[in-house]
Design goal:
heterodimer; A: 240 residues; two-stranded antiparallel sheet; B: 277 residues; alpha/beta; 9 helices
Chain lengths: 240, 277
């Protein structure tokens, strides 16, 4: 198993949600990690990333409508998202988010080769997985955590493929889907990010994740785009 | 070697052994789902690694059957993707009605939910007694389950909703009897159904069909096996016959794509052109 972080569990944030001018959030064992240009060290190692995976449930549409338009069209890695949607939904959400965003947003197709600057949403009623050769696959295996698509299924398959070159994010949502997957991402050396429960429309998914692991970053939705841009900025040899 | 690469190697070795000993060929299955299913099987098996399990798996058919269930079991529901069944009813059935007798192959029928859905649909469209559905699956155990046509009662609510969304013209409760926590589908539905085992990875084609239904099965296969299976279907399909795939499956980029027309964009219902052998 991968080495566990020696960081302590994040303190419960005392912040109330919905406050536009709130002070910087407390981060899990990383108080004050945000410098002027965004990010301070997670570990003293050179990092590069191949993909970002995001799990979100209740409150997800609003969250993604904030997050995705803040990402540039040339975002240097693919972004894969599982959001819990009704089994009979079509690709309407992807189409909607695409019209709001400069980055390309689409529903994931099977065998689709992952490309940078694209956001892939898991289709309704299918699990989304990553294959080792960098393409997507789908399955109709039974629901996991009562969910299909399930965040855990995506996260675990992505962790297998990308190991430390993966960023995993848990956003607002009810239930506990994604926490096991996020733990696996961490164990394989990937970077983990959790939305501050106080900032989340539904806090149980972030809280369940925090109960299982201490993520490198605990952020508000507003801070997330800047953090992501810093993490994936294509400066080779960057020490973060 | 990284732990994840080691697991991939163990899977490869085991699948080679399984093929040589039992004839089941999983070597061309898509890796991510197979890996997930094997990991899941392993965690409940008592073995620490696949390598440790392999010795016994290759010697003990009962244990292998247990593994087989773990890596092939597919779940479905009646009228899964109601929009598909609606398209089938409205755009394909009118053609089928012109035939004196309609032969249908439902490949990868799992526990039979969609095969029964098809039987209900054709019956409602007035084809009663004029069709036969050959429903096949790799796993003999699920075929036995499919033959019984018994499903958990709690599923029936969803089935009923799907049925209505799919344009069902009767009362869905006419098709089953509820008892305790289960629902038994009307035995009369089985009159036109033939269940059999068939392995898409190794077995041959299947007679001249007017329609082939294979939904969300090939998503578990790699491109090599997908092309093999599509070849099998092509050889089994009469000219003008219909090939119905899952809502996220497509003939695009496949070798046989030029031999088919999609009856309407995004239905994933394809019609074999005439004169394509």
């Amino acid at each position: 198993m991968g080495q566990r972080s020696s960081k302590t569990n994040p303190p419960q944030s005392p912040l109330v949600r919905g406050d536009a001018v709130k002070p910087p959030l407390k981060r899990g064992g990383l108080e004050g990690f945000v410098s002027k240009n965004g990010v301070v060290p997670v570990s003293r190692s050179v990092r590069s990333f191949k993909a970002v995976v995001i799990g979100v449930s209740t409150g997800g549409v609003a969250a993604l409508k904030l997050l995705l338009p803040a990402l540039p069209a040339d975002f240097p890695v693919p972004v894969l998202i599982v959001t819990h949607i009704t089994p009979t939904a079509d690709d309407g959400l992807a189409v909607l988010l695409d019209t709001f965003s400069t980055i390309r947003v689409k529903e994931a197709d099977e065998e689709e080769l992952l490309v940078a600057g694209t956001v892939y949403l898991a289709p309704a009623n299918y699990h989304l997985l990553v294959e080792r050769k960098g393409c997507l696959s789908l399955s109709i295996d039974p629901p996991v955590n009562f969910a299909r698509p399930s965040v855990d299924v995506l996260f675990e398959s992505a962790a297998e493929v990308y190991g430390p070159e993966l960023i995993g994010i848990i956003l607002t949502g009810a239930g506990n889907d994604g926490s096991k997957g996020l733990l696996m991402i961490k164990e394989r050396g990937g970077v983990t990010i959790v939305q501050d429960p106080a900032d989340a429309e539904m806090d149980s998914m972030p809280k369940r994740a925090l109960a299982l692991l201490s993520p490198e970053y605990l952020v508000s939705l507003k801070e997330l785009p800047v953090l992501l841009m810093e993490l994936v900025a294509p400066q080779s040899g960057k020490i973060i | 070697m990284k732990p994840s690469e080691l697991i991939d190697l163990e899977i490869k070795l085991l699948m080679e052994g399984v093929f040589q000993v039992y004839g089941y060929d999983f070597r061309d299955y898509a890796e991510a789902s197979l890996r997930r299913r094997l990991r899941q099987w392993l965690s409940g098996s008592g073995f620490e690694t696949l390598s440790l399990a392999q010795s016994q798996l290759l010697r003990d058919p009962a244990l292998f059957n247990n593994l087989l269930r773990g890596i092939t079991v597919n779940v479905s529901e009646m009228f899964r993707d109601p929009a598909f069944f609606k398209a089938l009813r409205e755009q394909v059935v009118p053609y089928l009605k012109t035939y004196p007798f309609v032969k249908i192959w439902h490949a990868g029928c799992a526990s039979g939910e969609e095969a029964y859905s098809m039987a209900i649909l054709l019956q409602e469209e007035g084809l009663k007694g004029r069709f036969r559905i050959y429903a096949t699956d790799i796993d003999g155990e699920v075929i036995r389950k499919a033959q019984e046509g018994i499903y958990p009662l709690q599923e029936l609510q969803r089935f009923t909703r799907n049925y209505q969304l799919a344009g069902g013209s009767c009362s869905f409760s006419d098709y089953y009897t509820a008892r305790y926590d289960r629902a038994i589908l009307s035995p009369a539905l089985r009159d036109n159904l033939v269940f059999a085992t068939h392995n898409l990875a190794v077995d041959a084609d299947f007679g001249e069909m007017n329609l082939i239904l294979c939904r969300n099965v090939m998503i578990y296969f790699n491109p090599v096996l997908k092309n093999r299976v599509l070849g099998l279907f092509h050889n089994s399909l009469a000219p003008g016959g219909f090939l119905c795939l899952g809502s996220k499956e497509s003939l695009e980029h496949r070798q046989i794509a030029t031999l088919y027309d999609e009856i309407q964009p995004r239905t994933q219902i394809y019609r074999k052109k005439y004169g394509t052998a």
